[in-house]
């Protein structure tokens, strides 16, 4: 019997500083079905895991990720904003996260969100696909974005890649991106779930974000929605039991 999968949002971001190795380790520890993370490119073209275009909110630094080298990004404290005991946390590269998952025998789904809706990073799609390639025998990867061109490019570069469309407003759901490229998953914000046509919901996997309240979790489980993306994965895992 199919059941709703629990995907840890930016790692276990309710319990650890988001998008750090510490957050991903916690998501693994509680046996999350999946892990979601966000990627940008550094000034020297390295794929780094951080949510915002700037480092201001989640590190000790200030400025755009794209204007800083990997070395500069690695010097920033990415944990003290959450709790001083995580002052050693750093912005990881995508490679470091992939290695962590492999070392821990992760066999679930990794959702890589390409943050290209503000800055269209040169060749980020090629880099992400190349980094993920060696791990595809161990776990599956879904590539999501708000930016249509990124999803189209992923599909053009590797036809068997799984793509999913992120959206937070009614009417933004699409089943295709044009040029014969079908959307293979919808990643809607929970607040617009009711507005999605039920006949379309049955056609396409729904992975809903960010599902944290008890009533929201119950809705996802009762409706047997494909996945819920959560800040506290352990709570949903307990409820599902």
TrEMBL record:
<dbReference type="Pfam" id="PF03009">
    <property type="entry name" value="GDPD"/>
</dbReference>
<dbReference type="InterPro" id="IPR030395">
    <property type="entry name" value="GP_PDE_dom"/>
</dbReference>
<feature type="domain" description="GP-PDE">
    <location>
        <begin position="4"/>
        <end position="240"/>
    </location>
</feature>
<protein>
    <submittedName>
        <fullName>Glycerophosphodiester phosphodiesterase</fullName>
    </submittedName>
</protein>
<dbReference type="InterPro" id="IPR017946">
    <property type="entry name" value="PLC-like_Pdiesterase_TIM-brl"/>
</dbReference>
<dbReference type="GO" id="GO:0008081">
    <property type="term" value="F:phosphoric diester hydrolase activity"/>
</dbReference>
<dbReference type="GO" id="GO:0006629">
    <property type="term" value="P:lipid metabolic process"/>
</dbReference>
